[in-house]
Design brief:
- The chain contains no helices and eleven strands.
- By secondary structure, the protein is mainly beta.
- The protein has a single domain, classed as Jelly Rolls.
- A six-stranded antiparallel beta sheet has the order 1-2-3-10-5-8, with no helix packed on it. A three-stranded antiparallel beta sheet has the order 7-6-9, with no helix packed on it.
- The N and C termini lie far apart (42 Å).
Length: 121
């Protein structure tokens, strides 16, 4: 049985600049076709705009507030919001609140740096 605790998973920086803790993926569990991670973004922080060639993502906000842009649509997001990001869609996330923005990121197939294309400098 694979059980990972968030407090025991090391953080790393993704290609878009996010700090994530990968809870379950092929790198650390029996999971083969998806990944689950928690991302944290400091106050005033943002990702680089990017898209994924193959991967679809679901973001689920657990703490803080932010602004999400997918292609030409922008919305404010808060705890309890789930955001669908299809493959090939450019997206960017900003922390607009006064605390760390925290969200769960579900990726299928699993997150890989090589599937991330940065679209801004």
């Amino acid at each position: 049985m694979d059980v990972k605790n968030l407090d025991e998973v090391p953080a790393f920086i993704t290609k878009d600049g996010s700090e994530i803790r990968e809870l379950l993926a092929h790198r650390n569990s029996a999971i083969r076709n998806q990944s689950l991670a928690e991302a944290r973004m400091p106050v005033g922080g943002s990702t680089l705009e990017h898209y994924h060639v193959k991967t679809e993502e679901i973001y689920y906000v657990t703490a803080g507030t932010g602004r999400m842009r997918i292609e030409n649509e922008t919305r404010d997001v808060k705890p309890g919001d789930a955001i669908a990001i299809p493959p090939g869609r450019k997206h960017k996330l900003w922390n607009t609140g006064k605390e760390t923005l925290r969200l769960l990121c579900c990726c299928a197939p699993a997150y890989e740096h090589s599937d991330t294309v940065i679209t801004e400098a």
